[in-house]
Amino acid sequence: MNKGFGKNWLTVGILLFLLSILVVPSSVVGECTCEEEEENEGGEEAALALKYKIAALGTILVAGAIGVTIPTLGKIKSFSALSPERDFFFLVKAFSGGVILSTAFIHVLPDAFEKLTSPCLKEHPWADFPFTGFVAMLSAIATLMVDSLATAYFGHTHKIEEGVDHVHLHTHATHGHSHGSASSSDSTQLLRHRIISQVLELGIVVHSVIIGISLGASESPKTIRPLIAALTFHQFFEGMGLGGCISQAKFNRRAVVTMAVFFTLTTPVGIAIGIGISKAYKENSPRALIVEGVMNAASSGILIYMSLVDLLAADFINSRVQQSGRLQFGAYTSLLLGAACMSILAKWA
Description:
The protein is mostly helical. 80% of the residues lie in helices and 0% in strands. The chain has helices spanning 2-28, 43-69, 87-116, 131-170, 173-217, 221-249, 253-277, 286-316, 319-322, 325-344.
């Protein structure tokens, strides 16, 4: 069951990633129907912008790799504080959840509104309907459905696979039956963590590719410079949030490495694609605005649902947090601090 689920996730992830790569570049190359805000000031500015992009590739790659790796080190004795069984793990995950939630509300969703309400989209139906909120709502509902259906499907499969074991345990009388019930409960919880981590990664991939392409296609050093700091911070803590989910899911080493590498490479690959299409990229063309706006709106809906329902609510209603006022206060503080830090960055990026 685990192997099949991993293959399904990997297939969906690759298809979604390829779709992002193929659709965005082909959509942004088109005749611009709206004037650009300002002309490129010359070759020197473009050369400086390219240097910043290359620097962004390195810093974001390293930040993402470190962020997603840190929570998975909890099994190592030297990093035992990061183990999911420790209080510190809940604080880090709450902080990361705040970062992801703020990313969706403060960065991704407003950008989607800006794209889909641009003066360059005066044609029907974009000027007549609030598509940004509509797409975000639909993506949140779709994420809920995927989350629910995947849990039900793989939970049912898991119960069938455990049927023989349950019969065997039942022959060991009361002790064996009790042990089997506890094992079934643990398996159900583990299944939830695995679904959460994989659905969250898919949501992250969508907007990571988009923001990477946007940065790579930009020719303005003034725009790129603050974005590097903002995206490095964002990628690090978003990676920690995802890494925490992966750690709780207890995947095998191969699956952990695959998910970590997939997350780490998405934004840098997006930047590389943006660099490649920067000469043909028309930021204000209707197709570019529609594709970026819709995908940003969709990813914001996914991230809002995942951060609130699967990352934060799941931990805040955890019996361990509920039974400790100190841990509860610390988790609330970490959540607000993470959301505040990422929100402040909106001033520059």
